[in-house]
Design goal:
By secondary structure, the protein is of the alpha+beta class. The protein has a domain of about 90 residues. It contains eight helices and 24 strands. The strands form six sheets. The chain has a seven-stranded mixed β-sheet with strand order 4-3-8-11-12-1-13. Strands 7-6-5-2-9-10 form a six-stranded antiparallel β-sheet, with no helix packed on it. A three-stranded antiparallel β-sheet has the order 15-14-24. The longest helix is centred in the middle third of the chain and has 21 residues. It is globular and about 65 Å long.
Length: about 375
């Protein structure tokens, strides 16, 4: 990675497997920060348009391979020797689309700022990476993570948390091809079409602001609803610092999504687990084994005719579906061939509780106070 121009942020493939190593020094302040976001992975083909003048370059040398006035719904496919755009082959494993001035890139349903790098992977599939200024990137994140109609102080708190998270991952994974993807397992990112004037305002009013603990960036996790107490990050990942130890939250209980209930056939659970290699026989019942200090389940026991299988509760939730089993703060009952989950909260529970922040803002707290509450002992610092 070229640290003189670009910071690379690597995708967090699944929150259950994140192992952030706390304590990363920040680079010089005079740099302009770019983030590399995986828009498509393992693609067999995709449609690409560019409205305006652009160059096709070799990514590592910036050698111009071709210039064009524009491109309309071109088919991009991998070929054994490289990449083909419509009928034009490029015998190189990676190319970069660099728009001129205000030219815009359209990739399938996305409209993107910045550059687009296309890589033909070793397995013959395509990887499409948006290289974009971090402030523009955040404008495409906020609306996907919180409502643009929420109080401005919530939007600003979310902007600072998301900026911190992205820059932390940029430094931690500087040698990777890309950083974040555009899914819930990383940070949701929708490009230009997700931008609104309110989210852009929140981003630019907090430009360059990040959270630090003892002078270093840390992964400022966030989630929808904590259910009364945010989770200790060390319960899920290899990070143990005061800003992520968890705090009492008396704010989010008024959210309309605070309580949830899911009724799932046991056979569906068996199928999902076996798809991940568990090889489980017919399930007779499920039960919870252990609760942590915040009330969240630690492990799930699955009982079959032949044996009992234990699975970490957070992994179980992600395998079955994080929007079906919304949190690990639940109780479970087996009823015939189905299991009933009744719980509170939504998300992994670490860091900023978005609905808690919403109700704090409604009570008059500003974004500094919100961030200081959910990330105790962290300091808000302006990097640039």
């Amino acid at each position: 990675m070229n640290l003189f121009l670009t910071l690379l942020v690597f995708i967090i493939t699944c929150f259950s497997s994140i192992s952030p190593a706390y304590g990363l020094a920040t680079p010089p302040l005079e740099q302009r920060y770019f983030i590399r976001v995986a828009i498509l992975k393992e693609a067999k083909e995709f449609t690409l348009s560019v409205k305006g003048r652009f160059e096709i370059c070799a990514p590592y040398t910036d050698q111009v391979l071709q210039e064009s006035q524009g491109l309309h719904k071109a088919k991009v496919v991998p070929i054994p020797a490289g990449i083909k755009i419509n009928k034009y082959p490029f015998k190189i494993c990676a190319i970069k689309i660099k728009p001129k001035r205000e030219a815009a890139i359209f990739l399938n349903r996305y409209r993107l700022r910045g550059n687009l790098e296309i890589i033909r992977q070793k397995n013959g599939r395509l990887l499409a990476i948006n290289e974009v200024d971090i402030e523009d990137y955040l404008c495409g994140v906020l609306r996907a993570e919180v409502s643009p109609h929420w109080p401005m102080e919530v939007l600003k708190a979310q902007a600072v948390a998301a900026r911190t998270f992205a820059l932390y991952q940029a430094l931690a994974n500087k040698d990777k091809d890309y950083a974040l993807d555009n899914t819930i397992y990383s940070q949701l990112y929708g490009g230009v079409r997700q931008e609104t004037w309110r989210t852009r305002r929140a981003v630019y009013q907090t430009k360059g602001e990040v959270l630090k603990y003892k002078g270093k960036l840390f992964p400022a996790f966030f989630h929808a609803i904590c259910g009364g107490h945010t989770e200790d990050a060390s319960k899920l990942w290899k990070i143990d610092i005061p800003p992520l130890k968890g705090v009492n939250c008396p704010f989010c209980f008024r959210s309309p999504y605070y309580h949830w209930r899911a009724r799932i056939p046991l056979e569906r659970i068996r199928e999902r687990l076996n798809k991940e290699g568990y090889k489980i026989e017919k399930i007779l019942s499920l039960s919870c084994l252990g609760y942590d200090e915040s009330g969240r389940v630690e492990r799930i026991e699955i009982r079959t005719k032949k044996r009992e299988v234990e699975i970490p509760a957070n992994r179980f939730r992600l395998l079955i579906g994080s929007n079906l089993i919304r949190s690990t703060n639940f109780r479970v009952k087996t009823r015939g061939d189905k299991v009933i989950f009744e719980g509170i909260g939504w998300g992994h529970g670490v860091g900023l509780c978005q609905w808690g922040a919403y109700f704090m803002a409604k009570r008059g707290f500003d974004y500094h106070q919100i961030l200081e509450y959910y990330y105790p002992q962290a300091k808000i610092v302006r990097l640039y």
